[in-house]
Amino acid sequence: MTIKYGVLAVPLVMVALTAGASAADIDTNDDGLYSFPEMEAAFPDMGVNAFLEIDSDADGRVDDAELAQALDSGLLDPPPERTAAN
């Protein structure tokens, strides 16, 4: 069975993020994409090399499909749960 990213990307991202930060929490400027600073804030253990690997089209931003692929492949762990102090 082949999973095509794009159609399933948003639901997969939302499921993966439900235990931690939501997509809206990560996308702080509300442009629908995730910059390195946004991703770094949500995934504190992610370094610049991981970001560059996740950003498969090398446009400097991560979209939902790229994020879903990174979470699905284990390149990224779901973000830590946010508490009232976060």
From TrEMBL:
GO molecular function, one term: calcium ion binding
Signal peptide region: 1-23
Keywords: Signal
Domain of life of the native organism: Bacteria
InterPro entries per record: EF-hand-dom_pair, EF_Hand_1_Ca_BS, EF_hand_dom
Domain EF-hand: 49-77
PROSITE patterns the UniProt entry points to: EF_HAND_1 (PS00018), EF_HAND_2 (PS50222)
UniProt-recorded name of the protein: EF-hand domain-containing protein
Protein's organism: Tranquillimonas rosea
